[in-house]
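Batch manifest, entry 17 of 40.
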Amino acid sequence: MGVRADETAAGSLQPDLVRTLAAYGQADRRRATWQIVTSVGPYLALWAMMIAAMRTGLPYIVTLALAVVAAGFVIRTFIIFHDCCHGSFFSSKLANQVIGTITGILTYTPYEPWRLAHAKHHVTAGNLDRRGAGDVWTMTVAEYLAAPWWKRFVYRGFRHPLVMFGLGPLFAFVLSQRFARKGAGRREHISTIGTNLGLLAILAIAWVTIGLRAYLLIQAPVILIAAMFGIWLFYVQHQFQGVYWARDGSWDRVRAAVEGSSFYKLPKVLQWFSGNIGLHHIHHLRATIPNYNLQAAYDAIPALQMVKPLTLAGSLKCLGLALYDEAQGRLVRFGAIKSALKGTVRTSART
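Output type: structure tokens
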């Protein structure tokens, strides 16, 4: 059997190359500022267009069409927020905090709690013994077979596409982010409360200007579409065939970045709207590289180009993957363990 491209790349990407990537971790204030202008600016302009469309009596489908485009700019704004959380968007810590907080309000996500959770995700991705930090709930085959029926039922419901990409985004961005996690520190509570107050201020302004109904007819589809695509992007970044998972003792940081994070090769327009986040293997190798430098790093380092890309069409095949099979070292569908599950049920019935 031949060597996979990602295995070859992982073997080539030694820690010294990770250090080499530091050259691309230099923030550029001019490029960062321009990205804000070309992300938040068009989003606000589209909001004005949607208000105008509703006030002039145009069919609601016009507003919905504009909402789809606006959602793209929300995703791009979230990437700015994401980079600020890594401290990479600006060289100034204060600038990252201020812009991160503002873009967090625009994307319904409190800065400090998300920053901490995401930082933990980066040091645990691909580690089977440290799951649960900012990742998609993933059970192993053995865990699923050993779980009681109600937990299997909940897990199957959670992994269903209609839940994960329908109800899930609504819960993740609109509801769960409104509350600080259990055991959260003072800064997390302040950040959560501040974000909620910012959202309430926007809602109050909308209420006294365009009306609550108009606001919801515009904002609801925008945030829902953006959240759906955002969850999809996060899903395919770490849930694909050939993904790397390992137990704590054998977990390797470089392999977790290169083989545990996808190179999601999107059409240029989608790559632009998603802020180069498809180059996720590079991002996990060096999280301090701002999104506007990721493509340059990829173009300059041949070893990074050896990772097999996940295409837009190919990513649809990831949809049914649900369990990690440690014996085979890969993600499998529920159907792959049907016979084993029947045997477990029969054994439980006899006992």
